[in-house]
Sequence to fold (644 residues):
Amino acid sequence: MSSLSLKNIKKSFGDLEVIHGVDLEVEKGEFIVFVGPSGCGKSTMLRMISGLEDVTSGQINIADKDVTRAHPSKREIAMVFQSYALFPHMTVSENISFGLRLGKMAKDEVARRVSNVAETLQITHLLERYPRQLSGGQRQRVAIGRAIIRNPQVFLFDEPLSNLDAALRVQMRLEIARLHKRLGATIIYVTHDQTEAMTLADRIVVFNHGVIEQVGRPIDLYERPANKFVAGFLGAPSMNFIGATAQQGAIQLDGFNINDAQRAEANGAITLGIRPEHMSISNTEACDFSAKVELVEELGSESLAYLQTSFSSDPITMRVDHSITVREGDMLPVSVNREFLHVFAEGGASL
Amino acid sequence: MNQSNTFWRVALLALPLSVFALIIIWPLLSSFYYGFTNWNGFSDNYDFVGFENFGKLFSDRLFMSAAINTIIWMAIAVVLPTILGLSLALLIDSHVPGGPIFKTIFYLPICLSAVVVGQVWVWIYQPDWGLLNSIIEYVTNDRFNYAWLAKPDSALYSVIVAWSWQATGLSMVIYLAGLTAIPGDLLEVCELEGATTWQRIRHVILPLLTPATVVVVALSVINSLKGFDILYIMTGGGPFNSSDTLAMHMYNESFKKYLMGYGSAISVVLFLVALTIIRLYFKQLKKVDEIYG
Fold:
């Protein structure tokens, strides 16, 4: 059974169309992450699913019911906001039970449910505190608690970890993943952080300029991006792009021994895409190109070397194992793993 | 460099401080002093009478009725402009058509001086051709010439209504600012949780407007304590002192009966009441800041 279905969703603000027809099917229990740069439409899409934003055209089904025009409270969804959106004048317990109390649920049933949720999120000891007395991570847990207690068909998370510091973000990411496993809930999660997307998602939906660029498992998107945008957006540091030409499938680039790489469809101007981890320092005389090390960033477990080459005006980023010492100014023989070489046509489509 | 900075800071502060001392602190201390004398306001000869003026307050029937009137004024001043201002702010914030125009209209009375407002309302209350009686006549289709300001039963309340009309604009603006400060996502949570309009107002908007309410109530209380100018224009404290407030009584005793010593004693009492209220206000403000800050 489909948990959420989006059919040709369009959204305009006045004359400006910002979502240009989005189709998506989400299975029950799936963890879907919407990613994309600022202004790509991912948050607008989430708000349309929640009902906080009207749909200009198209249809939204939740649990096979058409909810396109339904009030947000009738959609069986729960939303967790980036700002936590906790009521400052209510205790944790009152915040979590807000919706149930509005619905005039019996007090003992409310108390039972709050207690269950608090136990799940390990915040039982915080129930009588006010939001101002909580840390960022605890506040986010309370916000998640308010969502869980509604027992919704779909959870919507709008950049929930953006306000947390780096260490807490990693911890909360893990907790959200655990929670998803435990509840088996359908989650739509918006983020601009690709690490969150890669680690949490069953499937990632990459948005750009109001359209879906690609949908798929994180590893599929990483290894087989549909186009240059997806290739560049996923992966940190991002993929190196190098302009080249191709004649009848043979790639040519001065200073780069790439002639052996073939793409039958490639012709004319193309772009090569090489991830930093798919290059290595060659041990033999035979290498693909020589490059001068412009800058080295030591990250502890590895280093990032920024290379000057004769064929690219931008520096090429290469990941280097920490056991290998690389110094600025060194000339390096570099080999590229052909298996992971990406080629993009002039329009950006992957070849 | 630092020394020259300090010099300029002190020099720049000295001028406003000396003006403040001259027109606020000196008269304040003077009235404390004269409260213990029988000075008539212009003579060089007066005696120190100790607490006699303060003792007299308890036996002064007019002081007691003025104190009660001030409390009535204060109570209505807290309720009326607060509720009206809040209602108008909620209405305008709900994006009713013509909201900005209404906002300007309701705010306009604040720009008028109390004297003008008082005179406008004197005309509104005029028994024979005033707007209020004309409307009542129009509605009831019967002759109506009640003299609102000339009857002891209605004079005070008529003035309070006029005062509240002016004060409502200010509380509306304060509440509108408070409404703007409510984070949009909290209201979206209400929508997601299925709160009705009344539930949203009662459980979320009103509590979140507490800081604005504290300011509105404190301003209303403090301004009602000062209630003098509009009263002077509309009733002059009459008829038969029925609309006298403490400020009006103090004026009458000091400048009409030339009992400056006794008038000063009344002003000291007024000052102490205002000080207590301001203290309470700051205490409440601190509490509110702890929750909402």
Notes: The interface with chain A takes residues 183, 185-186, 188-189, 191-196, 199, 203-204, 207-208, 210, 290-292 of chain B (CB under 8 Å). The radius of gyration of chain B is 23 Å. The mean pLDDT of chain B is 91. Chain B is about 75% helix and 0% strand.
